[in-house]
Amino acid sequence: MPETAGVRPRAAAEARAAAPESAEPAWAPPILHSLAVFTVTRSVEAVLWPDPFADFRPERWGYHYGEAFTKPPLFDAAQPAFRWDHDPWPINVLGHGLLGSEIYLRARTCRFSAPAAVAFAVAGTHLWEYGYEANGVRPSALDLVYTPLAGALLGELRYATWRAARGIRSAPARVLVRALVDPFGEIERGAGVFDC
Description:
Order of helices and strands: HHHHHHHHH
Shape: elongated
Number of strands: 0
Strand content: under 5%
Number of helices: 9
Largest sheet: none
Radius of gyration: 19 Å
């Protein structure tokens, strides 16, 4: 019987997350978490920018996917910095940085090494650009590079803070700090959906 049997889901999750770095990574939680984040984000895009993201006609999707896989990623050097894909810079700098850090952080909290979490963020970014978003816009060279790199930097900072919170003696303060740096993860762990 596992040592964590009979322990509350949050305590069991914390015990597993505190396992040595050599413990095997858990793949299902970061994959399912990332797919859920991508699906919600793509749905919000369709509401905020119906043109092109709410155009569900198969011929439009076919056109955009065809463009995504037959042309290089979009990079317009004539545009100002962080506008090279014609998106506003807050979307590129803040939005993509946060998206990348969410993917990276979930991998780290599920016992991925830092290099493996970077690889996971790179793979997730490609899935986002070529799978979820390519039916509306051409993949962005900026996003393909910036999302995982900014995500790794911000995600590792979030991860270090999340781990350091273990040392906080006050349970409410510990939960508050962890919820601030990993709100979705704390909800998932608290609900017993995922154990890391």
